[in-house]
């Protein structure tokens, strides 16, 4: 019987999301027939390595955010020679770095939002882009720290005062319209989902993970050309970064001036959420793949460089 260790929890701002993902993954893998152990990852890396001795056949990486999604734990598992789910060190680290990922997307000819990196103090003095624009941490996921700055809201000073994400920020043009997402399993795009935040216009952390915080419409009711383009761009982004296993690309679709409109790639997630409200499991189910089968597929496609 294949022995799988699930890593979940972690020390990032997305710890609670990872705990929720891990609990579902553990149950699904046991249902499928794997011998499953779990490690709630904390600050003591030595304890994690000790818990991985003797080596399992596969590590299921259910960590999100920094140190779990940015290549750090992937490097440890490569060093130990343990196959693991999702992308490797390089793809994980590049995807988590919005500046680096955007540069690769541009070089691959993919549609991205105009923007630039700024020192966070620049916001104190003036707007770095025409309003409205979006301020993003460079190395966070799940919309942690993301703020939309609109005309007349006078939020720049507050953003600078409460900023805890390093000396720089990515500032991008705000793309009006709708939120779309596409999951990819290796080279196969699954579907296009439209996400409608219930509480407000911005799909923030609460909208993503709170029960009832958003509505997911699958297949997305968009122009057929945009649907096809979103599927193609998601696979192209997956390939451009050298990802493996499961990823999910997030898009903005501006149809405010009519169809077919404009599709913009926001980011790629190399550790898509696996919670009760997550999008990847929904799209897999839409394609006829149950959650246990999805988790088993990830285990069966695990790899490492070790």
Structure description:
The protein folds into 3 domains: 90 residues, Rossmann fold, CATH 3.40.50; 112 residues, D-amino Acid Aminotransferase, Chain A, domain 1 (2-Layer Sandwich), CATH 3.30.470; 59 residues, 2-Layer Sandwich (Dna Ligase, domain 1). The chain is built from 11 helices and 12 strands. Helix 1 crosses helix 11. It is globular, with a radius of gyration of 19 Å.
CATH class identity of the largest domain? Alpha Beta
Largest sheet: 5 strands, antiparallel
CATH homologous superfamily heading of the largest domain? ATP-grasp fold, B domain
Strand order of the largest sheet: 10-9-8-11-12
Helix content class: 25-40%
Output the structural class: alpha+beta
So what's the overall shape?
Answer: globular
Number of helices: 11
